[in-house]
Amino acid sequence: MAPLSPDHTINNEFHAHASDICAKLVTVNRGRREAVVLKLNKPATIGRNPQRCDYVVAGTFVSGIHCTLSAVRSPNGGVIVSCQDLSRNGILLNGHRICKTVVILMHGDIVEIPDSRTFTCVHVWRDRADKIELFDPTPPQQPSHKAKTVNIGKYLVTNQKLGSGSFATVHLALDTSHTARHQVACKTIRTKKGCDVGQIFKEINILNGLKHPNINRIYDTEQDDQFIFIFLQLCTGGDLFTYITAYSDKGTHLCEAEAKFLFFQILVGLEHLHSKMISHRDLKPENILLHAPGPYPRIVIADFGLARPRAYQETFNVCGTVSYLPPEGILALDQEHLKYVGMPSDCWSAGVILYIMLSGSHPFDNDSTFDSSSNWLSHIHASHLSQVSKNYHRDEARLKAKIIAGEMEFQPHPWNRLPDAKNLVGSLLIHNYQLRATVYDAIRSCWINSERDKLLITYRNQVLGRC
């Protein structure tokens, strides 16, 4: 192969802006420093086949396409860099063999193609320079790339943050009991005063009873004086919200076929939950993870902190995110004597998600203040990142009122060309929860049934074939 010039991009973009580059895999070829450069949502391939690979390497044990490298935005605003092995002989990550799986690459990790080339992963992403919270330092501190670890039971928890919320953070961890050092996600919850430990263990017990390819799998738990650690299945593709937003940034949205496949998986996961009389109660794109980067991904429903068993029973305890709450949930927020049921609430949330995937906008937030899909998603995305959005709180009362009144809007584009999808959304967003479509109704809808055979084949290949 013709050697790459030092640090130029694999797509021959010799003048790439540094701000576009997330990471580099640096190697030395015949004394010359070369780099496979990664940008957001632009995967790169390494292998022996010059027609199919961005970076070509020779070697007896190198496959035509040996591995794929990806960089996607993480829920906390950073970047997740991953490597998927597609070869016959695997790769070595820091000396440990990885076969037929996807791993996250941290800054300084060493990736070796057997009998060929060794690469060092260098993270070059720089997080935003603006302050996110009131008490952030000025100027904001840049995150350190230096790897730090702590031993928790048989796990080595790293400082690679995968996500964070009000009550927990998620870090990359390694299961050291396996020779291959199996990567997992570690959800860390601080058990400070006022923390509902019983609620945390309810989440653990619910997850322990769920074994399904579209539901986040729990491996183990540990506890010390300050924290509860939940070790979960690792997902390397970010979340569905970020995936949708990536399309919005390009001025477009998911195509119908991909949205249908993703929604089919959501329904299959919900069907499993509801068959066990469990409601999620906080279903939203941020809580739906992509198992690995790439188109038509396998999705995994995650974050069961608000889940409820015996979900057929009414409850006074309203929880979830206002944008995805049904009218009966919104009403119960302000009227303590009102109750609502978890399973119909999940179906409402699913309907909102489907509307967003197909249109790029919210069914109850199409006002002129957000005159395009991109504007609405950017608004919500800013709220998600800053956690406290003045605009969002100012408009929250208006949004609640529109949900209660059932003022849903179907814009001519794209809904005029999607009549079956529109009917499905409408049936999931019926105001009266007793008349609302169930997950069983949705999975047998005309929109799903019209391509059920194709969906099942893709599901078998993309989901069951990669479990």
From TrEMBL:
Gene3D superfamilies, A to Z: 2.60.200.20, Transferase(Phosphotransferase) domain 1
PROSITE patterns attached to this UniProt entry: FHA_DOMAIN, PROTEIN_KINASE_ATP, PROTEIN_KINASE_DOM, PROTEIN_KINASE_ST
Pfam families recorded: FHA, Pkinase
Segments traversing the membrane: none
FHA domain ranges (all copies): 44-98
Coiled coil: none
Keywords annotated in UniProt: ATP-binding, Kinase, Nucleotide-binding, Serine/threonine-protein kinase, Transferase
UniProt: ATP binding residues: K187
GO molecular function term, any single one: protein serine/threonine kinase activity
Occurrences of domain Protein kinase (ranges): 156-448
Record InterPro entries: FHA_dom (IPR000253), Kinase-like_dom_sf (IPR011009), Prot_kinase_dom (IPR000719), Protein_kinase_ATP_BS (IPR017441), Ser/Thr_kinase_AS (IPR008271), SMAD_FHA_dom_sf (IPR008984)
Protein family (similarity comment): Belongs to the protein kinase superfamily. CAMK Ser/Thr protein kinase family. CHEK2 subfamily.
Protein name: Kinase-like protein
Source species of the chain: Mycena maculata
Taxon lineage: Eukaryota, Fungi, Dikarya, Basidiomycota, Agaricomycotina
